[in-house]
Each structure stands twice: as structure tokens, then as C-alpha cells.
Amino acid sequence: MSLNISASNTLPYRPLNESLDEIRLLTVYQADDESEPANCKLEYVSLNDSYPYRALSYCWGDPMVTRTIYVNDHEVQATENLEEALRELRRHGDVRLWVDALCINQRDIDERSRQVLRMVKIYANASETVAWLGKAADNSDLALDLMHILSNYDADKDTWESAMKRQNQPEEVSAYRDHWTALEAFLSRPYWNRIWIIQEVVFARQLLICCGSAHATGIHLGTTLQVITSQSGELRWPMIDRSQASLDGTLSFVSFVRLRQFILELGGGWYPWKDLLFALKRCNRALATLPHDNIYASLALAKTGAELLPAPDYSLPLEEICISTTTAIVSASKDLSIICLGKNSLETNLPSWVPDWCDRLPPTMVFRDEGNGLLDTIYMAASSSGGSFSFPDKHTGGVSEHGHILIAKGFILDMVSGLGAVDLDQKSRNNISLETDYDCIPPDQKRSLYLLQEGVGLEVGILEAFCTSLVIGKREYLSGGLNLLNALFNTSGIHETTRLRDQIKYLLEQWFSKDRLIKVHGRVMEEWYNPAPDATRPIRNVCAQGSGEQYFHDETQAALKHKRLLITHEGRIGMAPHEARKGDKVCILLGCRVPVLLRERQEGGYELVGEAYVQGIMHGESVTDENIDRLEDFEIY
Asked: Does the pLDDT value for residue 421 go beyond 70?
């Protein structure tokens, strides 16, 4: 669905009759001489007539590198990759295809926009979808051979080694090292990165994968993906060690293939808007020629996409499309939580509360992806007793008539006083705000709210608040964190202090080594957890962690990649976005599941800084009669 024209403008088109559900099909005739240019016929048929055809799924390739084909006796310039696909597919006889570059009038923006939401139906009605990966290269024949070998893999009882041996393959599976290397190169091809490929393959009735003259089926692909992907969707390569940096788009494709059945079941127990949000977030790593396609391709993947958004329009500014997408989901869900996906880039003209659906979305506490779909968060900061408190629909917020201002009702609970340091890698340094202080900022307050019940020490209360915040409230990892930090701090005053402090730095470098001097309840954090030496307590090698401690460590490192330690004016502890500043307001917005930070603008109103985790208010504890009585409208720009 690109703006680039792969066919010349000499091919005449008449408008499609949409009342007849009409499409164009391309018949490619077999050639007696394989060197002859492809000779084709373009015809108009109705999808209602069950006309047999195959749909071609491919990368357009460089629009400036073309070859001549003939369509209805007109000379047409097709991209090199498309021409090679037509030449290969005609080898065994005439073939009737739907090919987007030729079956859609690419010069007609209105027609292209209308065809977007028909793509799923076109591919689903095809008798077969042919995925053309391009010419044979990088031992691609070995890659497809390996896919055939693994075709009888059973995830419940197999390893890839046993699946290969069961087909009488050599006992020395190491002989297949070249096959695995070839498969990695095969899945690194540009084809897998394209956003439109996801729907073309996912909704195919039958799938045939072609690379040169070698073939495999969708079943071969599915079993191969089972072997090379973990339950969390990460790629793992037997026998080879490769960087996965180039495979982000492939992971988007893999995710949708693995979750095909889950996507088809959306809507039964889900609100209609959730499958659109799911598709938008899952497609976010895929590549598109036009940024509009990141949204429009997601519409086609979502069952209710066409109901939530108006017809795709490539003539609209990208900002307007992002705003309308966000407001449609908010209106349908009566939930403001997706605004926490906003504030993703400093290089956008979008309002702070509007996610940039065409860029990689930031991690969020609102929806957690556990490998089987987008799950609701456990938090209900704007409700008491886990959601038993309800608000009228009008309280969930509304968008101003100009579309750029979000008017949300809520109350200010607290204010940012202290912030932990941010360990920015070189990539993020290229996209940081010069107005934000990323060093450790000491808080002004001299007290803490975490005074525990009688018989429990204050140190334990502070420690638990820190532990819970560091894993963004995932209490399943809390016990491991308490064990780990207790071991770290309670042994730090004994002999071999230097060695233990080195281990602390290794395990929690971003947090402890940079934030140990931040004050809590009038004392620096290092003093809270540096008690007098206890000769009866054995020195513990903290690098020998249990599974719970390792999970805590991993979750902490993940959280610190996009959040920093937070101390509020009232002494609350939590985690804030990297861009947080001293003086930002900690707010509860009705209809938003987590607290947010708002920043006052000199021109009036507020901008959204992002979501925040604040220990002790994540489950509606702050929604009291007193706070409800002081609700106000926030204009967020």
C-alpha cells in the first residue's frame, strides 16, 4: 500500500464497482521461453462469485529498479522483485493472482484508502497465499530443507534434536549447523519486517512459501517457529550465536503467527476496542513504507477496527490520524489508560497524551504482555476496593472540539520532590530533553509515610516500599527482592565490605550505586541498610542467587530502563518516567488505572509526563470522599 508507483502510468484502470464487491485479478501466462517478459491480463471480477485465485505476498523492492512486463498489451514497469516472482510462478502453467501493485490503482489515493480494509477479505478468500521471499541466496535452499525436516516437531514431547533424528537424520545433528545459519539469514530477509505481510500471512487460507524454486508450507513455518521461539516470544537459535537486533520486525510477525488462534477469539470476553489496541502494540516493531500504514494495517488486523475509526485516508496528516485513533479507543473503552503510551518521542508534534502509533511504543504498567496477549493491569488507582467505586461516563474525560486538548477530571495527590539518577545509554542520549536533570535529585521532605504497624521495624517498611517500587508492584517477585536486599545491606557492615559492595554494584548498579545517597525519612538510603556489624550472621555470597532473587533482579533492570526512583513531597516512594522533574504533580485521573505525572505549562494547562508507580495508592487507596470533593478539570495539551 505504498505511495511509490511500481507500475508505469500507461496502464488504464476503470473504477472498481464496490456495490458488486469488485476486485481486479492478474492472469500471468506460461511462457515457452523463460527469458520472455511476463505477459499478463488484468480483469475485473466480484468476490461474491467465488472466482478462484491466489494472492501474492511480497516486498515491493526498490521502485527505481524495474523490469518490463506486459499487461493487457500495455508495457508496464514492475519492480525487480515482483517481476522475478511472476516469472517463477508461471513456470508450471498459467496462474491467476491478486497483486496489490497492479490490482490496485496506485495513482488513485481514494481507491488505495478504500482498499485497505478489504485486504483481509481478499487474502482470506484466496485459495492460497503465495509468500515470495525473493531469489535463492545465502543457502536459502538449506533453510527450507530444515523447515521440512522439523515439520513433525511436537512441542509437548520433542526437542529439535529428537524431531530431526525421528526422520532418520544423522545422529550428529551438529552436521546441520549450516542449515541453522541459513535459516537465520532467511528470517532476516526484509520480507518478514513489513507490516502488511503480517495480515497477508496470518489470514491466509493456505500458505505457500517460495524462495527461488524452493518451497515450504505454512505448516512447515509454524513448526519451525515453535522450535526457535520461547514462550515469551523471544527468538532462540540452536547451534548459532547471533545478535537479534536486526530481527525486531521478524518478532512482530512471529508474535502474530503464534497468537493466530488467540486473535480469532478476541471479542468473546474482550471489549471491542482491545483487539485494536492489541494489534497496534504488536505491529509497532514492523516496518512500513508510509507511517500511516502502521495504523491502517492494524485496523485490518483488528475485528472492530473499521467500526472504531473512519475509512483510512492517506491524504490526512499523520498527527490527525494518531489523535483520531487515540480518541476512538478512549471513547469506546471509557478508559484513559492508553494515554500512558504517549510522550514517547521528543521529535513529535503530537499532544503529550497521544501515543505515536507509528513509532515504537514505550513500556507501560497499564497493559502487560505475557506472551499470550495484552492483559489488563492489576492496578485500579482511580477506584477503591479494586474497582468497586464507579464514576459516570462523563467523568472519564473528553476531548476538546479542536481535538488537541484532553479534558480529564481528577485531583492532585502529591508532588515530585526527589528523583533517582538515570543511567542513559548512548542511544537514549541522542533523544533526551536538555531541560531535564537526569542526576540524583535529593528530596526536600524529612519523613516517610511507610511507618508500619507495632512490632515491625521502620527499616523493613522502607525496604519493602523500595522493593515493591523497583519491580513496579509485581509482588510475586517481592519476597526474592526482600531476601536479596536484606542480604546485601545486612552484611555490608561486616568484613570484606569492598567485595560485597562490588557485588551490590554488579547486581543493582543503576539503582544502588547512583541512588544510595538519596534521603528517605531524613537519612540517606545507604544508612538505612548499613546496620552495625553482626558477628553471628554469616557472610553470604550474594552472587549465588535463588530463582526468586534472580527474577527480582531481572525485573528491576527492566524497570530501570524506562523509569527512575521517585520520592514525593509527602514521603511516598515509587517509580517515575525518566523525563520526570522536581515539582511535577502526582495526579489521579478518573478513568485512568495508574497515577500520572502532570506538569504545569507557562501558557496554562498541563502536559502529560507519563505514568507513575507510587507505593500505597495503586489500588484506589487515595480515592476518598475528601479527595473526590476536590475534583477538578485538567486541560492536558
From this structure: yes
Centroid of chain to Cα 147: 27
Q: Exposed/middle/buried for 15, CB within 10 Å: 0-12, 13-18, 19+?
A: exposed
Nearest-angstrom CA–CA distance, 87 and 637: 54
Helix extents (H) in 152-194: 160-166, 177-186
pLDDT of residue 117: 75
pLDDT tops 70 at residue 439 = yes
Reported as a single tens digit per residue, the pLDDT across 460-514 is 667 777 777 877 876 555 554 555 555 554 444 434 444 444 544 555 555 666 7
CA dist., res. 551 & res. 560, Å (int): 14
Is 164 in contact with 175 (CB distance < 8 Å)? Answer: no
Is pLDDT at 413 greater than 50 in this prediction?
A: yes
Q: Can you tell me the distance from the alpha carbon of 454 to that of 469, in angstroms, rounded to the nearest whole number?
A: 23
Nearest in space to 263 (alpha carbons), one of 303, 218, 234:
303
State pLDDT tens for residues 550-580. Answer: 666 667 777 778 889 899 998 888 999 999 9
Domain ranges of the chain: 1-107, 135-258, 267-362, 410-430+439-628
What's the CA gap between 201 and 129, in Å, rounded? 7
pLDDT computed for residue 83 by the predictor: 97
DSSP string covering 593-631, please?
SS-EEEEE-TTSSEEEEEE-EETT-TTSTT--HHHHTT-
Buried b (16+ CB within 10 A) or exposed e, 154-183: eeeebebeebbeeeeeeeebeebeebbbbb
DSSP 582-601: TT-EEEEETT-SS-EEEEE-
Q: Is the predicted pLDDT of residue 328 greater than 50, yes or no?
A: yes
C-beta atoms surrounding 234 within 10 Å: 13
Mean pLDDT, rounded, of the chain: 75
The single residue listed with the C-alpha cell 555490608 is 492
Output the nine-digit C-alpha cell for 559: 524497570
For residue 597, the cross-strand partners are 586, 610
Please give the radius of gyration of the chain, using alpha carbons only, rounded to the nearest integer.
28
SS3 content of the chain, % helix, strand, coil (to 5): 40, 20, 45
Contacts of 320 (CB under 8 A, 6+ apart): 403
